[in-house]
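Figure 2 data, in text form.
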Amino acid sequence: MSHTAHIPSHRKPRLSTAKNVLRAGVAGGVLSTIAVAGAAGSANAAEPVTETTIQMPTLSAAQVAEATEQAATDLQQQAQQDTAAQDAAKAAKKAKTDAVHKAEAKKKAEAKAKAEAEAKKKAEAAALQRASRSSARTTLNAVPASSVSNIGGSSSSSSSQATGSAASIVSFVKSHIGDAYVMGGTGSSSWDCSGLVQAAYKNIGVDLPRVSQGQSTAGTQVSLSNLQPGDILYWGSAGSAYHVAIYVGGGQFVGAQNPSSGVVERPLSYDQPTGAVRVL
């Protein structure tokens, strides 16, 4: 054998550089995949993932009918509830209106009761005045007739003794005896008490206040024992008289008395006046 004969080497042949790089890359990728898989496995072991599958139920015809009927029932109940709510609202509104009406009725009733009480009070006051007048008439009737005939200083025919303006006043009021009494009346055929007196004086060119209160202070106050035809008689107090008339002589007066009597001539004893004023 030659000394130069080929002796096989016990070392493995070298891989090329490209193959080494390729192997290293594949090994690295495998190791990375294993690492990721291991981490994912640990995470999955800590928090298990539950997957839910939603499956839509299949309804039968009976179930559909039942659902429809239930929906209709619900709608009907809702409608009934709405109707009940509306009825309750109407009832509440009506109750409120009724309460207002009752309050108004109560207020009117109280006002009516108050008015009736005032009317009763006035009626009682008028009754007292009438009683006072009646007492005065009784006292006057107790006086001898001769004394009565001398009131005003004249006889029963003293109206014929009135002269001048006084005679005109007496003639005017006597010409309207029988005319109607009308509250606020100023002629020519209907009068109230002060309207007739004012017209009688206006007939001679004398202007008097329109109402009895003013007429009772329009002249000089005179005593009832010293009356003259044409004097203004008043009932009540001077400045607040509630009735007036004209003294015509002979113990008589003419005045618009009331709606039932109208304009009349009466003796002083019929309704004794409180006082008198003389304008002329």
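Caption note: Residues 135-160 have pLDDT under 50 and may be disordered.
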